Automatic annotation (TrEMBL):
InterPro entries: HotDog_dom_sf (IPR029069). SUPFAM superfamilies: Thioesterase/thiol ester dehydrase-isomerase. Gene3D superfamilies: Hotdog Thioesterase (3.10.129.10). This is Acyl dehydratase. It comes from the Bacteria.
């Protein structure tokens, strides 16, 4: 098993969410929510552009999980809040910070920021690959 991350250790993954990501996520998820795929509809409803799929934005945390916890852990629980809609083209900095670290679970605080404003917050729990108790 990999060495456990230290409490307080964090990792930030940055990505600009593009129209291409919207297309990929639509294909993967089947989500055809109009505000996500129809620019005219999103703009008519007060957005500056189509809005980024919330779960696509939250998936950026998975890069930090993998780098901090290593290959022996998987996502066991996730609690997230989306503080505002994000227009396509947003550059997101997703940070996961270790709050507890042990062989049975690694806990994280999550924060994603766009232009200095927190847009996603939450908590995650990683568990060993073979664990079934979440």
């Amino acid at each position: 098993m990999s060495e456990l991350p230290a409490i307080g250790q964090s990792m930030t993954f940055r990505k600009t969410m593009t129209v291409a990501e919207q297309g990929f996520f639509t294909g993967i998820s089947g989500n055809m929510g109009r505000a996500h795929v129809d620019r005219a509809y999103a703009k008519a409803n007060g957005q500056s552009d189509m809005i980024v799929f919330e779960l696509a934005a939250a998936s950026l945390f998975s890069t930090a999980f993998g780098r901090l916890a290593g290959p022996d852990y998987r996502l066991g629980g996730l609690e997230i809040g989306f503080n505002r809609a994000l227009p396509v083209g947003s550059s997101i900095a997703a940070t996961a910070t270790v709050t507890a670290s042990g062989p049975d679970a690694i806990l994280f605080d999550l924060s994603a920021v766009v232009d200095g404003i927190e847009v996603i917050s939450g908590k995650a729990r990683l568990i060993p690959l073979g664990a079934t108790d979440v």
